[in-house]
Design goal:
Blueprint lengths: L1 H17 L2 E3 L11 E3 L14 E3 L3 E2 L11 E4 L15 E4 L4 E9 L5 E10 L8 E8 L5 E8 L8 E4 L4 E2 L8 E8 L5 E11 L3 H17 L1
Antiparallel strand pairs: 1-14, 2-3, 4-7, 5-6, 6-14, 7-13, 8-11, 8-12, 8-14, 9-10, 9-13
């Protein structure tokens, strides 16, 4: 009997894991689409340059739209990522800067989200690098939950970060459209690339599947 129970729970767990889906509708989540210009000459492709905006992203410094302090998108160089065939462009933001992008995903009851990205620190700009990634629905003011990560490695080290605990959809967010906001919440310029969000079933799904399996076993006895 115990072996049958364990088998059912294992099958349920595998079924739950297999349902994880990457939400691929975030615009320019890898920053490789670069920036859009108004015809003027910009010093670089950046959030804070007067004539450029990053495709698919919107500024959100101090909880409102407007120019950022020191942020942008750059391509590979000696001080950036050195593999232009793999990562191409990447973003950076100074302390307090923030920007967001939207997906077309409609949030469902019980959804849990996991965020993954490639991060790094410009360690000559100060100490205490940190990214705060916030999921929201419809508008950045409608927060679902956040994932805070200390960034203490050089970007060239190719360090991937991910929240180990999923951010679960709130009742208010169900039916809304999912967005993600990144804020440089530490004391140094931090770097960002290859942003992705997975949606997985709520943890209770596995338990319910297991209980359903148990009821079937009991009926067969």
């Amino acid at each position: 009997m115990m072996k049958k129970v364990l088998f059912v729970l294992m099958v349920a767990a595998l079924a739950t894991v297999s349902q994880a889906v990457v939400i691929d509708s975030f615009v320019n989540a890898d920053f490789d689409s670069g920036a859009v210009t108004d015809g003027a000459t910009a010093g670089f492709k950046g959030f804070d340059a007067p004539c450029t905006e990053i495709i698919g992203w919107a500024n959100y410094r101090n909880g409102a739209a407007g120019l950022l302090n020191d942020a942008g998108v750059e391509g590979p160089s000696s001080w950036w990522i050195d593999d232009d065939t793999l990562y191409m462009n990447a973003a950076f933001m100074s302390s307090g800067d923030a920007a967001y992008t939207m997906s077309t995903y409609t949030i469902q009851s019980g959804d849990a989200f996991k965020i993954k990205y490639l991060g790094g620190l410009w360690n000559w700009t100060g100490n205490g690098g940190e990214w705060t990634a916030t999921l929201f629905y419809n508008d950045p003011a409608n927060v679902i939950g956040s994932y805070v990560q200390v960034i203490d490695s050089w970007f060239g080290d190719d360090v991937w970060y991910s929240n180990t605990t999923g951010i679960v959809a709130t009742p208010e967010s169900v039916g809304g459209t999912l967005g993600i906001l990144f804020k440089s919440s530490g004391g140094a310029i931090v770097q960002l690339d290859e942003v992705s969000v997975d949606v997985v079933p709520e943890p209770a799904t596995m338990i319910l599947l297991g209980l359903g399996g148990l009821s079937l076993i009991k009926r067969k006895k």
